[in-house]
Amino acid sequence: MLSISILDENDNSPSFPKSSLSVDVLENMRIGELVASVTATDSDSGQNADITYSITATNNHGTFSISPNTGSIFLVKKLDYETQSFYKLNITAKDNGRPPRSSSIPVVIHVRDFNDNPPIFTPGDIFKSIAENLPISASVMTITAHDTDADINGELEYSIVQQIPRGSHFTIDPSTGLIYTNREIDREFSNLFELTVKATDQAVPAEFRRFALKNVTIWVTDQNDNVPSFVSQNALVAEPNIVIGSILTTVVAFDPDDGANGEVEYELVEGDSDTFIMDRYSGDIRLASQLVPSRLMYTLAVSATDHGTDRKTSRTELTILLQGMDGPVFSQPKYITILKEGQPPGTSVISLDASSPRGSASRVEYFIVAVRSGGKAVGRLFTIGRNTGVIQTAAELDREKGSDLYLVDVYAIETDASQPRTQRAESLNFLTPGGDGFTSTPGCRSRSLHSETRERENLEEAN
């Protein structure tokens, strides 16, 4: 029998089932992971059908490798979407025939973004200067960050996560980063605001989101929006025989504005300018000529004017009482009052009562000449009804910010006498965190309160 063997001729090239291949991979793919697989077939037999795979073009920087036997494509170098998001490989399948035959397929690899980059603000500190009294919703500045990630991974939302001092004086547009005022901006409240701005990308899920923080410092410049406010008392007592040239009192006004806007000068605008002179810078009032011993009081009008471009002025009346004898008699020489802190200005504290030894027909008026705490003058925290003797608060009192004891010196004068007739009384006002309104204690009938008062007085004298 004759046997004829037909030997294969390498007349077929390897062929791929598709003309091209496209795959998507995440940029955070680990090195060594499988990217894709290509498979070619060869109709020949034997070694003419044995196929070897290779990357024959555009394998940038050797980012990928291919198994020559299986056609599996692997990642060799780390991907970075922001550097390169698209690869096009040319994969060649070659048989082992003689001569070998081959064919190729383009493999397109799309790198999909992974949220691997945080937002970035421009380096350096951010400072902004604004004028006080800006209207609410006024634009301050725009702060932006950049995120090189794509799509929602690179979309940013802005927020203010901290403000010093507290109070939500500023807010920010979450989309644009525009900072604008949310409350009244008052330099006298604070001349410096520190904001912490947060930029957060919108990756999904939310726990994959990344953020960056930026500190923003806002300086508030002054406007002359405050008038000088007098803090010294509007009454004093003088001896009739005081020496010419002596300082009777020093008028003090406070202006919380800054620089020239807060510098104050004084002027004696009404009253006996032949008897009194005033230093425009220090506020000292001196005696220019001898006081008239039979005169009961002098009334002056004093102004305080700041040095701002738009100068602001306030005025006060100053009463100078001449010290006298045999004056009105108070119902008690010392009044003790317990007052709850935090009461609004105008709260009645206690009513003082004095009467003339010469009968009820004599008219009596009352004046506060000093308010002290801790041995120091503390300004106009109390007022007194000139005709009624009712002491009221002139400000909201706070034990933590001020004191828990105030000593108020009060003088009563007979206004229809032919010569000065005055008398002094003292009101000790205790400030407590509890209670409602006030409780007055005549004389020293409360032993525990009297003991505490004596201790406070000793401390005042020691200071």
| Global morphology | rod-shaped
Q: Would you identify the CATH architecture of the largest domain? A: Sandwich
Helix percentage range: under 10%
What's the CATH topology name of the largest domain? Immunoglobulin-like
- Major beta-sheet overview: 6 strands, mixed
User: Strand content of the residues, in percent?
Assistant: 35-45%
Describe it for me?
This protein has 463 residues and is mostly beta strands. The protein has four domains: 21-112, Cadherins (Immunoglobulin-like), CATH 2.60.40; 120-221, Sandwich (Immunoglobulin-like), CATH 2.60.40; 229-322, Immunoglobulin-like; 329-462, Immunoglobulin-like. Helix content is 3%, strand content 44%. The chain contains one helix and 36 strands. The strands form eleven sheets. Strands 31-30-34-35-27-36 form a six-stranded mixed beta sheet, covered by helices on one side. Strand 13 (170-172) and strand 14 form a beta hairpin. The radius of gyration is 45 Å and the shape is rod-shaped. The relative contact order is 0.09. Residues 435-463 have low confidence and may be disordered. Residues 422-463 are annotated as: Disordered. Keywords: Calcium, Cell adhesion, Glycoprotein, Membrane, Repeat, Transmembrane, Transmembrane helix. It is found in: Membrane.
